[in-house]
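Bumping my old thread because nobody answered last time. Still need a sequence for this structure:
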């Protein structure tokens, strides 16, 4: 059994949470969907992340998507010889400084199968995240970034790398955090309307690698929409399967 040292400040926090519900408690999906804005503001605001992490975010003058926007995708999951086609929607809501409250909804045969709720940096890096499966009916344990000791600005020219070195754990974890690194390399520049006809300006395609506890967790490709200051996924590869994304609509 793991033992955790709890400070006086933490005990005070836990006492207050006892009145409102602990941040790690499962939440019914039905309750989340009744008032998603309230759920995001309570659990995925800037205040939900440590001030020391927020201070590491690079000061940038990049454009930022200034209205709530939904991207619709058709996805193809390949696992060996097995291929599964599904749909996914991603709703981005900017809260400033490159941060987005992000809701991702998964569906198959027009039936919702699950959600991810996240506090995310420009579509490329999660600061806090939780999954919720409709088969369970409740959210899982949330995870968050605990500290950051390096956070580079995004590359502007092909070949440039940006690295984030961080520690992460679940929201009630106080010691023995996991090590992580997110490295994104700008691979090429393309026209945005080649990705989707209604877009304009430039796409910066990033190839990223996520490392957790010294091992590669995933490799991914993202299309960063320069005029909007946000990235959407093109492909994510894990050890056992690959997901490819096709953008079909923007609302």
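Sorry it took so long. Here it is:
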């Amino acid at each position: 059994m793991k033992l955790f040292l709890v400070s006086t400040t933490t005990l005070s926090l836990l006492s207050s949470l006892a009145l409102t519900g602990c941040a790690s408690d499962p939440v019914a999906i039905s309750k989340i969907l009744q008032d998603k804005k309230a759920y995001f503001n309570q659990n995925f605001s800037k205040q939900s992340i440590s001030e020391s992490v927020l201070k590491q975010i690079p000061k940038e003058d990049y454009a930022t998507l200034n209205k709530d926007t939904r991207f619709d995708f058709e996805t193809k999951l390949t696992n060996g010889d097995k291929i599964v086609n599904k749909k996914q929607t991603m709703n981005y809501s900017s809260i400033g400084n490159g941060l987005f409250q992000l809701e991702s909804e998964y569906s198959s045969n027009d039936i919702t199968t699950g959600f991810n709720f996240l506090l995310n940096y420009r579509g490329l890096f999660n600061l806090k995240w939780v999954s919720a499966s409709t088969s369970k009916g409740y959210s899982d344990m949330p995870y968050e970034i605990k500290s950051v000791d390096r956070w580079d600005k995004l590359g502007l020219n092909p070949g440039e790398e940006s690295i984030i070195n961080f520690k992460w754990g679940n929201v009630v974890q106080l010691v023995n955090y996991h090590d992580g690194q997110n490295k994104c390399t700008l691979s090429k520049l393309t026209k945005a309307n080649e990705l989707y006809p209604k877009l304009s300006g430039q796409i910066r395609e990033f190839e990223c690698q996520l490392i957790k506890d010294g091992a590669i967790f995933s490799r991914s490709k993202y299309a960063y929409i320069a005029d909007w200051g946000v990235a959407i996924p093109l492909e994510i590869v894990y050890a056992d399967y690959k997901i490819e994304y096709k953008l079909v609509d923007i609302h």
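The helical segments are 8-20, 29-34, 36-43, 51-54, 192-195. Let me know if any region looks off to you.
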